[in-house]
Fold:
Amino acid sequence: MKKFEALGLNKPLIDAVSDLGFENPSEVQEKAIPILLENDTDLVALAQTGTGKTAAFGFPLIQKIDSSSRTTQGLILSPTRELCLQITNELKLYSKYVKGLNTVAIYGGASISEQANQIKRGAQIVVATPGRMKDMIGRRMVDISKIDYCVLDEADEMLNMGFYEDIKDILANTPEEKLTWLFSATMPKEVSVIAKKFMHNPKEITVGTKNAGTSTVQHEYYVVGGRDRYPALKRLADTNPDIFSVVFCRTKRDTQKVAEKLIEDGYNAGALHGDLSQNQRDLVMNAFRKKQIQMLVATDVAARGIDVDDITHVINYQLPDEIETYTHRSGRTGRAGKSGISMVIVTRSELRKIKSIENKIQQKFISKKIPTGMEICEIQLYHLASKIRDTKINEEVDGYLPAINDVLKDIDREELIKKIISVEFTRFYNYYNKSKDLNTTDGEGRGERRKDRNSRGEQSSNGSVRYFINVGEKDNYDWMSLKDFLKDTLNLDRDAVYKVDVKDSFSFFNTDAEHTENILQTFSDFKVDGRFVNVEVSKNPGGGGGRGGRDRGRGGKGRDRKRDKRRDRKSSYSKSEGAGNSGKRRSKRRDGFF
Ligand code: ADP
Ligand code: MG
Structure:
């Protein structure tokens, strides 16, 4: 590992580095800094979030800029206000020993004339969001016609957010001979287009593995009756016990109401919309970052600044009016090399929109069914069993063991397991036991596209078999790799295995019935890495649920809160969706809800 001195940084920067307490350069810094210092070249650098990209471009930029001239020489474009401020603060720290160097942030939601004044006083480096930048160019408040360096930071994110046209317009105001440095966590098609179009023979560096970005998002839709949106949303959450999601609604009012309902029903939810004060929004965002909130219900505008990387699901409670907006929504997940799912709850009359979105994003949707009550029970059951298995034993219970043993002494192991599981399971069971199927048929003509849909309709009762398998995300499977594993192990065609839903420590999949014997036989005594891999036929033929559910190492506090809240769930469930027992007050409220 090279030290910072060896990268060619000058004294003012080295001094700042030592003040910051950075001991060694990160990988992207080690690779990018020498290239940028020694060459006048364009650069494409791919590195995950948190790898130190700001210094990777910031150090060379600061060193190359002539701080004795007041001309704006460097422009950094970044997707959100938060990132813009973050970069500006970092650059100020980096350049604290560089005399006369001024870095100014320009972004929306703050006084434009104040920002224009700061620029007027002289800013060699401008850090900007594309929207505000374009605005200020239009008003001649900033001059970028003489810049030498342009940095596109978080390029994938900027494109995800629909800033392509803005970026193009901004670049049209910069000199042809400037150098462009593009930094991105992922390399979706759109980013390579930018690289081709606006850059000249860029050098490329990659830290970690490259990935295709947007293709890591799976798009799914669920057709329900208009009144069933809310119960459908709850089921999607219950199918994915470890969900960490953004739920999009169209209006501030719906956003607030859905969040309130979820909270009332015992979910860790929060609302994010423009009627909240900045302070309230910060509180919600902090809780979300800490994963104390698992379902963040948001409007499109409010969700723009969300810079959280491990969102597992985006749920479109309602479809947006603009197709573009859908792209921005689904781009909240599948970031930083992770996979994600974008779910859409639609009514039959909205199915046309799915088609137009498919055309626009050039990706197919999978038609999925809202899981039945019994499917959810099964998933919760396995989830609970794995949770018990993985629970760290609290040594404090030791002292109480004799007394506890005494209470439980007449119960044998099998009975004990049944009882432990029933403590939690009965709650779900009672709630879902007689619940109705929420799915409406999704119209003709769409049923043919994928194997997994054929099996849903006429075929599901006779031809398709659903299996439980005791491996999941914990064993490093995602739906694609599990599908590959099954197909290879069983010597089947790729299409023979479908509806692969990977949960945390177990999964489900389907095949046609003709393969069942072979499958059960193969896995009757099958080990991977010394561990038995076990397959059983699932009691539920379905498989409408998502494939999410990963362990996100939620802090102890969050878990406790969740458990406490869930304890209350039964009563709120039966209040809000239960069969015919909703109190008067409640039914009144429900009437007012959509
Ligand atoms: P990225 O833009 O890749 O997401 P940042 O540039 O924001 O990452 O850096 C993430 C954090 O790591 C920042 O708090 C930054 O100060 C810190 N950091 C950057 N480089 C180093 C380093 N070489 N050693 C220690 N910390 C670093
Ligand atoms: Mg960054």
